[in-house]
Every structure is written in structure tokens, then in C-alpha cells.
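User: Can you fold this complex?
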Amino acid sequence: MGPSNQESGTGQLRHAFQNDFQALAFLVLVTGVLVSPVLIAHLHPQDRRHIYRTMREEDGGFSFMEHEIYEVKDNIDVVFIGPSTVWSGIDSPIVEKALTEKLGRPARVMTFGNTGASMDVPYMLMRDLLSHKRVGMVVTSVPRAPFNDGLTPQGFRFLSYSDPPETDGLPLRYRAMLYAGYVLRGPRDLLDWLRPAPSTASSLLHTNGAMLALAGWYGQPYTPFTAPYPQLPPEASIYSTRTRDNFSFSGAPLPFFQTYYLHKLCDLLRTRHVKLVLVSIPQYQERRNSLAIERLCWPDVLGWPTAMVGIPPATLFRNLSDQDVQKLYYDDLHLNRNGSEMLARTLTPALLELYANRSRVD
Amino acid sequence: MAGMIPLAVLLLAYVLAARFCAYIRPPNWRTSVFMAVNVATYATLAVWFARGEAKLVLAMCGAYVLLVVASFAVMAAVSRRLDWIAWVAVIFPILPLVLMKYLPSVWNGVLTGTHIPPAVVAVTIIGISYMAFRLSHLVLEVRNGVVPRPNLAEYLGFAFFLPTMIVGPINPYSMHQRSLAKPNLSSMPIGRCLLRILVGGTKYGVLGNLANQISYAGLFLDGKPHGLIDLPVAMIAYYLYLYCNFSGFCDVVIGVAGLTGIHVSENFNNPFAAKNIREYWNRWHITLSNYVRDVIFSPVSKALVRKLGSRNVNIAISLGILAAFFVVGVWHGAEWRFVVYGLLQAAGLIVNHNYTVWLKRRLGPQNYRRYNESRWAGAAGQALTFSFEAATLFLFANDTYLMKSVISSLSGHHT
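Assistant: Here's the predicted assembly.
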């Protein structure tokens, strides 16, 4: 039955399939697509390293991470890991330099950043990293920006059925969503099987993986600006019973899916005895706030080995006009190179202190 | 997910109400109720999707309905005239589209002046391209005596027929009207409609998305160098993606329209089986092909034959093809790449037409028939047509930025 049957407007509605063979082929195709993750995992299990090569560079420093995880043998002292606010927010070479001076040996401080607002990708990154080397301390941040209750585009590219993230205790709908992600990445996996993607040299090697954005406020030209930063004693910015009044908690929880993988990340670090530090990165609109804002009191929520670091934005930016503060950001959420340098210099004493005492139970 | 339940209930209520119209006996009542159901659901959906500013959205919907009423008035006034003024009625429904798509500075100026949020405009004039073409084709059908001139209720019921509003097809009014005038629900069994919806939804939501993973945007925007082999992969994947996406949506539209008792023209007929470009355009976006054939190609080529004489009929046909596909290109968007895409299709069709004429002369009728029946020639034609269409869609798929990204990553550079 072709379309001509319908030309008169009174013919029969065309069948979805022109014959039984077409229907069968369609059914086989759809079934094949739906079971493709299982088939691919059995026929050609993809190693995790390969996945880094298929990730978009604008979605994160994945070439850098592949190099650091699979090529470099040296352990890492401190790794900054997390969403874009972390990727652009802390100048890790500055922290590395200070740690090198303090330790009297070459220290290694790296940034593993990606643009997705999610905790599943950092968890898997950390799992990959820890299966290849030792890490002294992990620093992350949970932005106040909205998080999806599920996979981000980066997540579905990064998570694979061949080596999936843990899902024990995860409700069925999230597991189904993860499986749908595995199905969706099928064509790309198949293509990489047929013609493996080569490894690519990362442009972030000289910044230790940090994305030091040379971008001005909302598209304005970037202006180099060295901001005066408050020189605070380490304990002043570390959350404790003495400093808890410097923090404010909005109480806005993360969505279930993200909370699940944040806990997974924390559990993973706990089993490896790696300290986790959550750092408060101020947003532009919070610049005059006298308290460091976080969603929740992370050390209470996550328990050992979690610490929290934050500086009230009003303290951080106390000698700066609004125009000066704008020179530190490229949008409301993200610091540019100026800002990341300033924040790194401000937080370094606290981070070094936490690194020195990383095995201590607070 | 829970937020979608009211939407699903609304759409189900729409289908039931529209289907109920088939049981209304006096035809005038039927068309009036059908129109009311469609216009009311359109306005409700606009309010739903705008998520706020209900009064403004309803006012905009009212303005859109008035614009369509104005098109009706122009059609009623001049469509039966035999001189060039009748073409005003053909062109009038397209004018808002021209203003919006091709004179953005004027359009944006109007929007800025009225302080209407762009999101509100977007949800109220959704599918304006398809609306414009359907209404202008309607004028031609009336003028050519294919259908009697509709009354206002019939006209609005056709214009705001919900399933075809968003992405077509450019369903001819004649087909729509015959379904409504003589309802024949048994020709559209519910099971068959539901299967069309299911298969269309699978093509649109699953298969299309899968193909898109390795099309241009899925493959080349990773900021890494790519081998030349990735180009044909992306070309084929994009072609498959576009087919699954568009034909899948059309399947859903045809299935939903079938549930309401309205026949909607098929828009795809296995385009990958096309053995030449002419056949391809009879299988791909069929309603658009029919539109440009009726509204542009036929009048232009006929006028040219009259002017140039029957000895130059092939030149007239070639120029008619060029005009038609220039419009196809421009209709897709006010960008150079769409124009070039249209002109490339025209070039392909002109070559195909003149080659066919030449071949017929050279081979004679018997040999030409044998050539046409040859499996090898058919397979070669199929491969050539598939490759040509997949390759020219490069212009369709990628804006200038993406084209540069693809080319630079193929040349070993990366961003």
C-alpha cells in the first residue's frame, strides 16, 4: 500500500509496515538496539581509557585526565575534581607550588574538571584514578546552581555498560535511565570498535588540567587583574566548631541521583583513606554576603573523611568594588583566570593544613 | 514526569472530542464543533507551554486566529479571479512567515516595541511555516476547482488542525475536507493508528537519537582531530537521523490524525529506495514537493513554455525546477547554506531531467525501458542518489561554525 491509496482522502490509512518482512526487520532492529549494551559488553568490552578519547574537550579536560590516569605513573597529592565551577575556579599550579615549598619535594596538584553539574562523572573519574594511583586529598565543590535528577549529556557519554558505576540501592527508574544512556552511546561504541579513536594531546598540561578562562564578564574582553586577597590563618576558613558561624546553609538538597553518587564518591574515598574537602566557591551575586554559603553542612551529611572550606564572600572581596569583582568572573557562577588565581591564593593555607592533617579524624 | 499527566489527559480529551465530531450529523455543525475543538485545544496548549502570562498568551492566540481570518477574507475576495490578483490570496498567508524569517530586523523591532516575550510568541505562532504553506496551497485548490471554497469554520478547522500544526505535513485541504465531510472511521482502524504512533515514536525518539550520536554534531564537536572516514559516517548518520526524526514525527501525526478521523497525506515513502533525484523528491517530504510542484514549478514552467515556445520546453522545465528548489531552499531558512542546498537539488534534478531526455532519444523506447528495468542500473542509481542526498545534507545540517569545526577537525586541527 503506497501513499496513492490515500490521495482521495477516503482510502485506507497506510499500514506502519508495507509487509511482514519490514515489520520483522524493524522489530529485530529495535530489539538489537535495546540489547546492544549487553552485546557490546560481551563481544567487545570497552576499557575505561577508551571512553576518555571519545569525550568532548569542551565538556571537560578528558584528554588531560586520560594522560594523567593512564600515562603518568606518579601519585597525586591533591586533586581538584568536580563540575565547571571547580574546573575554572581554582588555579591548581598555584596550590602545587605552595605545597612543593611546604613539603620540600615536588608535589603534584591536578584538576579533573568537567562542565556537567553532576556527581556521577566525578565519582567515576575518581574510581578510574584510584585504580591506577594513590591520591593524598580530593577537593570538590557542590555549586548552588540547579542539578538534574539524572544523567547529564556528559554522564551518558562517560558511563558505560562494560564497566558501569555501582547502582546498588538505586531505584529502578534511575537504573532504567542509566541503561537508556548505555543504549544511546551504542553507535559511538560501535564506531570506536570499528575505528578506535586515537589519544589526543591535551592543551591543559601546562595548567595541570585547570581551565584558566581568559574570558571577561559576560563576553567582555578579558582584563588581567591581580586582586588583593585576604591573608587568613588556615583554621579561619576550615569549617569547625569555632568557624561554623562563618557558614550559612541554604538547606537545598541535591537531587536523589546526585546525592547517591556524592555518597558513593565519599564511600570510595573512605575505603581508600583519602580525605575529601568540599570547598565553597562564591557566586558573583553572593559577593557581599557575610557568610560562606553552602547547600548543606557537608561534614555532617557525609561524615569522615569530609572537611569543608569556605570564606565569606564579603571577606574575600572586601577591598574590591563591584566592577573589580566582575573582573574575577566570566559569568555569575564561574571565576576566570583572575578569580581562580585569587581564590587559590586565599584557600591554599587551609588546603595545605588539611593536607598535612589528612589522616587525622576531625 | 508527573507534570506531564495533565498534558496527556488534555491530548487524550482532544482526540476523543475531535473523533466525536465524526458522529455529528449536520455537516455545518460538525465543521463548527471540529473547528472549536481544535482552536480551543491550540489555545490551551499554548497557555500550558508558556507556563505563565496566560492572558497575554490568549491575546496572542486571538491575534493569530485573526490573522488566519484575514487570510480567509483575502481568499474569499480574490481567489476566484482569473487575473494576477488571485495570486495575492496565494501569497498573503506566506507574508507573516516572510516577515518573521526573512526580515528579522523588522520582526524583532515589532516584538521589542510591543514588549511581548519571545517565548510567548514562540508558543503561539508555532508551525507558522507549515500553516503558511497549507493555507496558500488551499487557495490554489479552490482556484483550480479541486474543492469548493471553504466557509470560515472549515477554514479555521483546517488551519488549526492540531496534529499537522507543528511540523506538517503540508496536508492538502482537499484531503482534509473529504475526511471531514464524509467521515469514514473504519478506514482508519484504531489499532493501525496506534501502531503508526508507536512506530513513529520509536523512529523519532530512539532510532533518530541513536543515529544523531554519530552525525556531524555528535561526532565532530569533540574538539579532536578526525580521520576522513568519519565524514561519510557522519553524512549517512545525519541522513538516517533526519529521516527517522522527520518521518517518525509524521507517522505520529498521521496516527493521531487518524484517531480523530482525518486523513493526512503521507510525507515519506521509503526515500532510500529512490533510483534518481526526481524519484527521491517523490518519496521525501512528499507534501512539500507537491506544494512546490503545484504552486511554483507548474505555473513557472508553463509560463516559460508559452514565452519560449515548445521547442525550448526543456529549458523551461529546467528553469521551473530552479525556481521551485530555490524556494525550497529559502523556505528552510534565511541562510546561504539553505539556498545553496536548494540550488544543488535543482542542479541534480535538471541534470537528471536532461539526461533522461537524452537517454530516451539515444536508446529508443524499447532499450530505454530495458535500461530502466536493469537491476544494475537501478542499484547504481540508488547508490548515486543516496550518496548525493547524504552529501548535500551537509549544508542542511551544519551552520557556518559547525562546517568550520568539521573541516578543521578533518584537517587535523582541533579546538
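Residues 61-148+201-356 of chain A form a domain with the Rossmann fold fold (CATH 3.40.50.1110). Chain A touches chain B at residues 2-3, 6-18, 26, 29-30, 33, 53-58, 63, 183-188, 191, 195, 197-198, 200 (CB under 8 Å).
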